[in-house]
Amino acid sequence: MLCVLFCTASSWADVVVVVSARSSVTRLSADNVTKIFLGKKNTYPGGGNAIPVDQLEGSVTREEFYLKVVSKSASQLAAYWAKVIFTGDGYPPRLVEGNIAVKRFVAANPDAIGYIDKSNVDSSVRVVLEP
């Protein structure tokens, strides 16, 4: 039983939310990030477009991000987006495959926001939330 708990805990990524190093955004609350990733806001506090970038379903980093920051499991998230899309109230964030691709996309676009494993952070991105 302890091995199962230890193995599960050790499989988590150390997720952080990042923006481009060129962005004027320096810190965000979990509530701000949640609203951006659930399509409830498309701007940063204080102004500026916010373009969320999501990782592919099944990614450990994605699962950790949505559980820790948004408080939704994969099935809850799928149900949420199914309803939002069906009612015509929005669309999920753009999908990008993996930590490196998210970092590159965010680094190249000052309006973008994404989440990556902390081990992938470098000077091209700025951490705005560590859940």
Kindly describe this structure.
With 131 residues, the protein is of the alpha/beta class. It has one domain: D-Maltodextrin-Binding Protein, domain 2 (3-Layer(aba) Sandwich). The protein contains 5 helices and 5 strands; from the N terminus they run αβαβααβαββ. A 5-stranded mixed beta sheet has the order 3-2-4-1-5, sandwiched between helices. The longest helix is centred in the middle third of the chain and has 14 residues. The protein is globular, with a radius of gyration of 15 Å. The relative contact order is 0.28. The N terminus is likely disordered.
List the helices and strands and how they pair.
Blueprint (H helix, E strand, L loop, with lengths): L1 H9 L4 E6 L9 H8 L13 E5 L4 H11 L3 H14 L6 E3 L1 H11 L3 E6 L7 E5 L2
